[in-house]
Write a structure and sequence with these properties.
Layout lengths: L1 E3 L18 E4 L10 H60 L7 E2 L6 H8 L4 E5 L6 E7 L5 E7 L1 H51 L7 H5 L6 H46 L5 H27 L8 E4 H12 L4 E6 L2 E4 L1 H18 L5 E5 L2 E5 L7 H6 L19 H12 L2 E6 L8 E6 L4
Amino acid sequence: MRMRRSEPSKPGEPGPRSEAGPRSEAGPRSKPGKSGLRLRSGLRWKLSAAIAVVSALVAVVLSLVVHNAARASMIDNSREVQNERVQFAQRIYESSGRLTIDARLDDPALPAPLKRPAREGKPATYVQQTGGAPVVWAETPLADGRILSLSSPFTDRFAVLDDLDQALIVGSAAVVVGSTGLGVLIGGQLSRRLRKAAEAASRVADGATDVRVRDAIGAKVRDETHELARAVDAMADALAGRLEAERRVTADIAHELRTPVTGLVTAAELLPPGRPSELVRDRAAALRTLIEDVLEVARLDGAAEQADLQEVALGEFVRRRVALAEPSALIDIRQDTIVRTDPRRLERVLANLLANAVRHGKPPVEVSVFGPYIRVRDHGPGFPDDLLREGPSRFRTGSADRAGSGHGLGLTIAAGQARVLGARLTFSNAPPHDGGGAIAQLILPRE
């Protein structure tokens, strides 16, 4: 065994990082963070924006209706008042010959729309629009053929209309702000429920079979979110039942095969020496190993395994186990640490990673320890793309470049044992300029 030991890195130096390339993880996934913002903020603000736009449209329409109705009412009232004034001025003029209330005879400024009814002997009123308040005219023909008229700008009445417009603007703004706040509140509640449902569904996908979406979102509100949660829980229960049934079938088959295979191995040992006997013993031993691996995978899939935690000096532990499993591997203890883990399960993970590197990779095989990080690297063709995308899968031995002996259960067992330890197992490939090769990194919990 060749060993190399480097000095501990300076405080604050980051742990070993996987080189660039695709990655796959086995173990607890990180909780959804800001990446869930599309659901968390998008739904909330879209709902709030929709409510704000609808409220603004309703407020604008109602304000225009109220404004136009009030203006038309004021103009009609002004016409009536002006008509009464001109009739009063007519009676005074016909009785005394005096002009009152600023009345005029044959006013040259009389608007053209009033001249025609005056010639026809009909009294009429007219609203003349100006830059400011409108001017209301009223005319009435006299018995001598002359036209009596008067005009007045109704500034005071239309000042009331300006006050009304200000009140409508303030009220509309208050309605929009209030409805937007209500939309944010309602959208936030709905978004939180959906976010909790998504987090619970992610935990179920990570293997937490006891998690239920209905419990995560609460049962106070019975809406479409609750129906979605019930559907997801029902699907999770159905899938869990099927997986458990398949696991039991696999475990039962493997368990039933143990006895005859054990007898086969014993019988093979009794065969006379020779090449055929060696082949029979080798295949019988391989079959027994396969059955034991299948049973272990079935137990790990059952999610009932518990780790027997102990304090372990990680650097010394890795040095001894690697020396026994693969003496030719290079060991680099960059920083030793004490971790609380299950030594038996950790040894199983490390042995499987080393066996995979030796079987499918090329030397040198390097094992590095930096704090709670353990990294196993070879210099072969690297992990296949499907493993990097989907993680280890039973009975998948890799691409043609990494094909060989084995049944594809080594990394599956390593990932399952890492999950029991509460650790995270990642897979990546080193870049070609750094020599290439497959990298498996185990990150143990610090406590």
